[in-house]
């Protein structure tokens, strides 16, 4: 392995600095510098101080004159705490000073009177100096949020006066130190997030005065020792996010003073011990994301102090115990993603402090309690994907603080509760896929913060409310598939901050209103309605528009050239209307256009000659008798390229086309019969997302067979990925996945969320063709390869910076603009592809979780609407951040450094920066250096060892854009 030259120079650098400090000491007048000050100067020479945080650690010029010998010079330095007469150093606080480097064994030995040592929030690395354990007077030792590695050294039990030990977020390996349990004075013990392995020592049950123990986020295994139940003084215990075996020890019910217990994400199985109900002081209990089964103990109703209870993402069955009606202090109840059934106890509605009720994805039935929301300040309600019936509870927002109302995929009926119109706090309303009817009686003028409304797949009537334009922050509005909705498109409805407006199959009539300042509009879907008139020229205001679907309406007039001129337009479906005139030639020069479907109109003239039109299938232009040119029949002579052949010839052509269609239909039917007789794997179905025409499953399957012959309609795709050309000439990337029939619906739910994710830095997920055994995922095919293929190519800094920011924007959209958030799951160079403009696109997002849903012993968590308390998804997002840091370093070093954590943590920032500048041919004096330094710092932040120390993607993007990090 080649060692960077900068690392070889580092010992010389340290030796030089040490020698200079030695010279400064011996030439101080009077040579009266005390040994403590000398020791601190030696310490300063040994560590890396990139931010000059220890700039005041210097000797004054008159340090040897008129200075009492019993005084310590260093007492006035930052981070140094002395006793009252400055004769002893009793505290050393070097926290949050951006320090780094490696300690030698004897650096702390002079400070035998030290009571507090704080090295936290720095970048110290390698082994923890065992000499610290000789500071026997220490009461507090905090080394958290560093990069100390190797086995935790023995000897910690020497610190007999220690009260606080914080080792949180380091890079230790090997077992937890058993001898720490011998410190009787210890009250706070934090070994979390530091990569310890092995089992929890049974000796940890012998602490005498411990109040707080945190072991979560390591690599611990084995069974949870029953001896932990002997910790009678502990009030707070977090031991989750490890990989244990077996069940929860019933002995934990003996921890009589316990107030907080978190064993989430720990691979636990078996039932929940009813003995936990003996924890009568318990306020928070988190057991989510395990494999716990059986019923929720009825005895939990005795824990009157309980404030937060999260049992989600397990295999629990039965019902919510009626005894929960006694939990008068309960604020959070989350049992989502289990196998629970029955009705919701009416007493739940009378809990006075309840603000969050999350019970989605179970088998609950009946109606919601009528008084829900009447007696408490309910903020978050998610009961989606159950079997509820009845109306929305009338008092759901009576206290005026409801933020999210999530009721989708149930059997609710009736109208929208009138009380919702006065619920000004609402941010999200999701009531799609129910049986709601009547008018959409919402006063949108009362919703200043409303951003997301989905009422699709119901039975609403009475049209879209005219006051929708008053909801100034509305970004997503979907009322599709309400066949009797009727009405017109309200004036100014498309002039909001809307990004998505969908009203497919709603019997909407009337003309298009003029487009206002629709700068945010990305998706407009109005197909299968009765909209008439022309597309207003003011569509030119919608400069961000990516997709427009107006198929199956009564639109007339010319296709406006303003539509063809939109800079981001990618999908245009104007089929089955009455448009006339020619296809605007401007479409041919659009670099973003992927699909143009103008079939079955009254268009004439020639199809533009650009290459993008030639590769389209003729079906995108069928049904326009006066249209010619590739990919249709050639245009003959005559003005404007119009064909001048006889009517008889044209009629003959149409007869031949009709015969061809009949032959294809008969062939498809024969294939279908053969497939059925051969015991196919179930009827194939097709789900199309925005950007894919309404192909049938057979259309897609035949496209696969056109690549490779097959004897029936089961596609002969052997590889996991391949290319195919669909009707209308769309080239797609096809990814095959297999699933178990019982997992199909859960996986389709996630696929639907993946399909709705639209961003210019995401590869479009176009659709899914599936049966009960397998599915084919259809993605945009991008022609310019992936990052892994190009990583070693020398590129200028501007190109690299554009690539990094593009990746960040795509990831930020998945994390912060999808509801719930979609972790990528497998971010790496192979899954970053480039379009024709070399803009990066993330692909394969969410695919990892599809496979987990199907194969894992743990059911993969796909998220929920109130993601702010979904810790499982949060951890996956932080893992994305780590991978993003890895990708940044690969780009910066042309693929030479792929292990960002090792490279950043084991190399000084100066050395690493020099290497990166060298790889990018940037001189140290170049102004680009500051940009590279900033990007390198983002990589460092993203690859911190403790996930919670990493920034969010939103924060990282702000840093990359040169903005200050906002909290």
TrEMBL record:
It comes from the Eukaryota. InterPro entries: Kinase-like_dom_sf, Leu-rich_rpt, LRR_dom_sf, LRR_N_plant-typ, Plant_receptor-like_S/T_kinase, Prot_kinase_dom, Ser-Thr/Tyr_kinase_cat_dom, Ser/Thr_kinase_AS. One of its GO terms (cellular component) is membrane. It is found in: Membrane. Residues 673-963 form the Protein kinase domain. It holds the Pfam family LRR_1. GO terms for biological process: negative regulation of secondary growth; post-embryonic development. Keywords: Glycoprotein, Leucine-rich repeat, Membrane, Repeat, Signal, Transmembrane, Transmembrane helix. It is a single-pass type I membrane protein. One of its GO terms (molecular function) is protein kinase activity. This is Leucine-rich repeat receptor-like protein kinase tdr. Belongs to the RLP family. The keyword Ligase does not apply. The chain crosses the membrane at residues 12-32, 652-676. It comes from Nicotiana attenuata.
